[in-house]
Every structure is written in C-alpha cells, then in structure tokens.
Specification:
- The protein is α/β, with parallel strands linked by helices and 482 residues long.
- The chain folds into two domains: 285 residues, nicotinate phosphoribosyltransferase (Alpha-Beta Barrel); 94 residues, Aldolase class I (TIM Barrel, Alpha-Beta Barrel).
- Helices cover 39% and strands 19% of the residues.
- The protein has 17 helices and 21 strands.
- Strands 13-12-1-5-3-19-20 form a seven-stranded antiparallel beta sheet.
- Helix 2 packs antiparallel against helix 6 and helix 11 packs parallel to helix 12.
Amino acid sequence: MTLTTNTALLTDLYQLTMMNGYVEAGIADRMACFDLFFRQLPFGGGYAVAAGLEDALDYVANLRFSREDIDYLASLNLFPVKFLEQLSEFRFTGEINALPEGTLVFPFEPILQVRGTLLEAQFLETALLNIVNFQTLIATKAARIWESSDRAPVIEFGLRRAQGPNGGMSATRAAYIGGCEATSNILAGKEFGIPVSGTMAHSWIMAHPDELTAFRAYAKIYPNKSIFLVDTFDTLREGIPHAITVGKEMKSQGHSLMGIRLDSGDLAYLSIEARQMLNEAGLHDVKIVASNDLDEWIVEALRHQGSKIDIWGVGTKLVTAAPDSALGGVYKLVALADERGEMRPRIKISQNVEKTTTPGEKAVYRIFDCNANMIADVMALSNEPPPSDTSVVIHHPQIEYKFSRIDTIHRIESLLVTVFAKGKRLLPHTDIQKIRARTKAQLDSLHSTHRRLTNPHSYRVGFSKTLRELKGAMIKENMERV
C-alpha cells in the first residue's frame, strides 16, 4: 500500500514557481544533485534509523500530473500554457541513491541523494521530505523505546492519537521498522504484514454486571487469547484477584490466560505485586502488560525500579514522537551542471555554521572493527577513491582543524545504494521483516555508549581530506567576494 496520495499536487507552491522559473531562465535541463539529510539527531539521542524509502520510491515511480491537476494549476493564473503542457508529460527520469531502510544514520549524511535535471530533481523536495522525515523520526523513537525496555516486546497502539489516518499508517510502519513487535492497527497489519495484538478496553468491563463476570465472558469467547485489563476499579483488591480466579478456571479447562494489563497507577509497584500474586496462584506463565503514556524514559525508569513488566504497550508518545515534533531534514542543491554540462559543486553559506551545506556529489562509507562494530563514517566525494583499508583520517564536518585517525579497520562498507534510475525503480519491494531485522543488526553493531538515553557518546562522522578542502575553499571564495 502506497501511503502517499497519487497526486503530484502534494507539494509546495514554490516548487512549481521555481520550476517555471528554471524553464524561463533556460536552465531547467541542466543536471543537478540534491542531498536529503538532517543536521541534528532527534530526542538528544546518539543515532537515527532511516525509514520511508519504500513509500518514497512508490511516490516517485507513480508521479504524474492528472488532467484535473493541470486544470487547477491553470486556474491559479500563475503559469504559462507551455509550462503546464510540459507538466502534463512530467516523469522523473533521474537517479536516486539512498541508505536502505533500517540503516543507522547520523547528522549531515545523505539519506537520499537525487540526481536529475534541475526541473525534475527540484520537484521531488517536498514529498520526499514529508515521507522520509516522519518515518525516520518514528522509527528512531521506536528503536529508543525498544532499547530502553532491554529489547522486551513493545506493542504499538497509537492509531487513535496519530496525526490522521495517513499519519497513523506511516507511524505504525515506521514503529515496526524501529523495533516494535506488533500493532493494534489492523489495516497496517493487513497492508504491511505486521503482527496485530490487542487486549480490551474499560468499556468491556463496564458493559457487564461486574468485573468477574466480564473476565469470564471474555475468557469464554477467547479461551487462549485473553489479556485482562485489571485497573477498572481496584487493581490489587479486585482486578488481579478476579483475573487469578478466571485464570485458574481457564487452566482447569485446559486453556491458559495470556496476560493482564496495567494501565494506571504506580506501574512498578503494581507489577511487582501482580507478579507475586500470579506466581503464588501458580500462574507463572501469565504475562504482565503495561501501558499509560509510556516513552523510553518512563520505560527505562520502571526497569530500574525493579518492575516485573513483560510487555510494553506504547501509543501516543511513540506515534507523535514526543517531545520532538519533527525531524529537521532538509533537501539542498549540492552540484549543478555548467553551460558545458560539467557538474560543479554548489554551496549554501550561512551565519549559522551548521547550516552551511556540504558541496559536491558524495559517497558515504562506514568503518567496522574486527568485532563487526561500526566505529566511524566517512563522507567523501563520489569521484575520489574509497578510503584505505589500513588507516583513515577523517576531518570534523564543522571544525576546520579537528580530525581523527582510525587504524583499527577491519571492513569498509559503502552505504548509498542506487535504488532508482532512468525512470525505473531498481530496488525490489523489500519485506518489512527484513527491514526490521536490518535495524536490529545495525543496533547490534553500534556500541552501547552511543545507544544510551542519557548523554550518548557521539558517533564519529567526518569528511575525507578532499571533501574538507573543497568545502573550505568554497567558503573562502565566497567570503572573498563579499
């Protein structure tokens, strides 16, 4: 299922006004290269999880202006007829290089690299940012929650609090990529092959004469799939004892109670008490599920408090990525062909150092040590030789004279993969289970100091000497012109 709408009008107006301007200026057909990247890691964390590529490629492959789209644009009285006729035949015929979904990514590294005519490549900006920014943000949030649970099962059930239906579907998909085990979102389960899971709401209890009757009724209908919500009235004096009563009845009939869910109160204390009560009743296999506005910080705190929670249900703060409302991904021109057709690096200079872009078409390499741990990433120009496999010097992206030498090199991997070329998608549709497995493998290869929630150690990302010199020279040249 393509999450993006199939209309080309899912864009900002300035994309079209610039495209028309490029045509009028006679530069629309020049080859250009854009990088999609972010400058700062979300949540104060040590990594991000790239996501959204599948939907981005579906969008690009199906990109068309319908007759209704052209008629609407004509009604704006902004564009000449010749430009609108050109849009009616619009297709993206360029090339996209990308990090595979589930790859860990760090500031300033291209998640996507788009190469095509200036007209075509410019137009992709808004939709690609919309897709990749959100899904990368949610996948990262999910990975942090999963890590904070010590990789226990995390169930996503944030659909009712998500940013509309499309946001709900995107969030569920990205949350699964980031490490969630299942979702309550049935449509996402059907479309993406994500396992679905659910318990009951308080209304089930309140719709029956009493709590015990409600549990018995549910157990009769779902004799091996029951998880009882035990906090409708009094968790310790009624909810858990009633669950134990019905759990024993189920056991005597050859069935088993799957679990109980705690949705309010002191979750650490209640889970400890619940575990003891269940164990004393011989219900050792009954799982304890916890919910109630959880996020990675609360999950980590509950674990450190000795809670006995087996499964974590996370909704609102996952699908809305609280407290970060957005990933600050940007799409910047880094190279443009001159009058002779030769690609020339381009740079944007800013008073804010971090907003000065990195010029040129690039490659990104990841360095691994002998234990298969990733230890640094190197950004280089695409036309320079790959880094040496014996010793690599990487230069700080922003501090001119700061560099580090890496001698413990076991393997170097090129990260960007060509996924779209000559108007066709090259990357086959990837099973979401494989994408999720990639996230896990990537996290396994990242040292725990980079994965911790509090003051994570900064992962090294640097430039090759050639790229560092190019950026420095272009900054100097621009300063001398002022």
